[in-house]
Specification:
heterodimer; A: mainly alpha; MetI-like fold; B: mainly alpha; 2 domains; 77% helix
């Protein structure tokens, strides 16, 4: 059943891009590591409040591939655990933002008139504040918990979906299949979600995949500024921030978590690009 | 004439958006749990002191009245007193904004002057080694957070190779020019202090590149994509048939229409840079708005947060307006369509 995917036309088109295949492989490795972190990492107990003052700030070695941090914790273990948080943040934020943004975009684009004006003006306001600054402000005023962090990111991400879906819906709303559905008496809800939405799914899915990387990137930027999850939870952004103070002597502290962020964003980007050309939107 | 009407329309639109932004951020700042006056004064303050502070911040009035007063003060350039520095937010921001602005301008220049030509070369020699290298560089630029770029660049070029200074805006003991524009490099040049100009340039290279890398990649990829599209048009074939040189075709016929969509996205990148400047400034101890911005947020400084976000958004809107107008100037169809 599952292996059937590899015989499909979609996979054939996807796999014609070597970089997209590489990205998918990279993504599988990252997700695999993150999910099985307790089994795969060499020192799972180092993910929490562990200290070993006999073993602090060791450079990379065979026992500790990425070295150890200031309190003797294995950096590799913490990086892998950092991926767990990052992936959760990515999926939860977009799981909230994308459906909301898509729905608003559909309504504004299809209904037009007052819906259009109100929704799109509000969208403009959100898009007029640099994403990172808006997230900082929201996080700044709320209590600094993981839930609030997720909400802050979701609040700044929905307008991008609204704008994209809005533009595409407007292009589609006078198409013959929409008019035909209306003629036979289909409800607005049916037209929006059964007639128009399926046409938009490829671009929404592509954007969703690309954005998973970018949400992780922005989340790491926020925690780099000290607005992320509380220690001792391993978080890639705050690991970079802590380590930055001790470079160049302890270069491994910021470099490996930094590379880890780069790789996960790269993986989602390559897969997203691959999906785009698979759906035939490539330039 | 049409351009003027277009300009006025955009100006009005931007002001409306800014009005919306002010409501949004004012509302967000009122979500602070607990009493902002109490937070500002600390646990040692007496109830009377807190009450006086509440009075001064007008927290006892209805939110709508608070907002009205806020807008009235705003028109006089008054953003209130920062609860953290105890000085007017306006002067706090004005003292740090030029440094951030200088950094963002430098980054925007790097992004455009390197990214766009890179895209042109990639489009002219499609699927060549140059194209693939440019694509890879662009991809790395986009997927690496600017603070990670900052750390990598610092490790390699400041610590290992020792080519550029590690941090700061200018060396200690450098002769500083009188403030004219607030942009140190420009001011030094005006005052004729060439050693300071050179020193400041050396300091800005690494942070500016760290900030520019993301946008640089986007600029290159966009220019390439848009130019490739133009290259497939028939009039390019016609130009080839008339034996125009490849150089002429690239710059005279392919670049200009390709730049229109590219410019719009570059405006968005500029906005991203205004935000990312916070990250890069923290790494390089650049004396811009970042430290202040992060500090007011962590200390839940009501007025400071509202002021910082508002100023950054205003800059973002102004830049986007300028870009829209340039685009409308380059592509007359836009000004006619929008009427």
């Amino acid at each position: 059943m599952i292996l059937g995917i590899f015989k499909s036309r979609a996979w054939y088109r996807y796999s014609s891009e070597p970089l997209a295949v590489f990205g998918l492989g990279l993504l599988f490795v990252i997700v695999f590591l993150a999910v099985l972190a307790p089994v795969l990492t060499p020192y799972p107990n180092h993910a929490g409040r562990f200290v070993d003052f006999g073993n602090t700030s060791r450079p990379p070695s065979l026992q500790h591939w990425f070295g150890t941090d200031l309190v003797g914790r294995d950096v590799l273990t913490r990086v892998v655990y950092g991926y767990r948080i990052s992936l959760v943040i990515g999926f939860v934020v977009l799981g909230l933002a994308a459906p909301l943004g898509v729905t608003l975009g559909l309504v504004a684009g299809y209904m037009g008139g007052r819906f259009d004006t109100v929704i799109m003006r509000i969208t403009d306001v959100f898009l007029a504040i640099p994403a990172l600054v808006l997230a900082m402000a929201v996080l700044g005023v709320l209590e600094r918990t993981l839930i609030n962090g997720l909400l802050a990111l979701a609040v700044l991400w929905w307008p991008w979906y609204t704008r994209m879906v809005y533009n595409q819906t407007r292009a589609l709303r006078h198409e013959e299949f929409v008019v035909a559905a209306r003629v036979v008496g289909a409800s607005h809800l049916h037209i929006l979600f059964r007639e128009i939405l399926p046409n938009l799914l490829p671009s929404v899915l592509t954007k969703f995949t690309l954005d998973l990387g970018f949400v992780i990137l922005v989340a790491s930027a926020l925690s780099f500024l000290g607005l992320g999850v509380e220690p001792p939870t391993p978080d890639l952004g705050s690991m970079v921030a802590e380590g930055a103070t001790y470079q160049p002597d302890m270069w491994w502290l910021p470099v490996f978590p930094g590379l880890a962020i780069l790789l996960v964003v790269l993986a989602f980007n390559l897969v997203g690009d691959g999906l785009r050309s698979m759906f035939g939107e490539g330039r | 004439m049409n351009l003027w009407r277009y300009f006025l329309g955009r100006l009005l639109g931007s002001l409306l958006v800014l009005f919306g932004v002010s409501i949004l951020i004012f509302g967000v700042a009122r979500l602070i749990p607990g009493d902002p006056a109490r937070i500002a004064l600390g646990p040692m303050a007496t109830a009377e002191q807190v009450e006086m502070m509440r009075e001064r911040l007008r927290l006892n009035e209805p939110v709508v009245v608070q907002y009205g007063e806020f807008v009235r003060d705003l028109f006089r350039g008054d953003l209130g007193i920062s609860l953290y520095t105890k000085r007017p937010v306006t002067s706090d921001i004005l003292s740090t904004l030029p440094a951030t602005f200088e950094l963002v301008i430098a980054a925007a220049l790097i992004m455009t002057l390197i990214g766009v030509p890179l895209g042109i070369v990639a489009a002219r020699y499609r699927n060549s080694g140059v194209d693939r290298a440019a694509n890879l560089a662009a991809l790395l630029g986009v997927v690496t957070p600017s603070f990670v770029w900052a750390i990598f660049l610092m490790l390699v070029f400041a610590f290992a190779l020792d080519i550029f200074p590690i941090a700061g805006r200018v060396s200690r003991g450098a002769e500083l020019p009188p403030t004219v524009t607030g942009l140190l490099i420009l001011d030094s040049a005006i005052a004729g202090l060439w050693p300071t100009v050179f020193d400041a340039l050396r300091h800005i290279v690494l942070p500016a590149f760290a900030l520019a890398m993301g946008g640089l990649g986007t600029a290159a990829r966009l220019t390439r994509a848009n130019m490739s599209e133009v290259y497939d048009r028939q009039y390019i074939q016609l130009a080839r048939a008339f034996a125009y040189t490849e150089r002429e075709i690239a710059y005279k016929y392919a670049l200009r229409p390709a730049m229109v969509p590219t410019l719009t996205i570059l405006g968005l990148d500029f906005a991203i840079m205004l935000g990312n400047a916070f990250l890069v400034e923290m790494v390089f101890a650049w004396p811009g708005m970042a430290r202040y911005g992060v500090e007011v947020i962590i200390r839940k400084d009501l007025n400071g947060i509202v002021g910082t976000v508002l100023v950054i958004s205003a800059f973002f809107l102004i830049i986007n307006m300028i870009i829209d107008i340039v685009v409308a100037y380059m592509n007359p169809r836009i000004r006619y369509r929008d009427q």
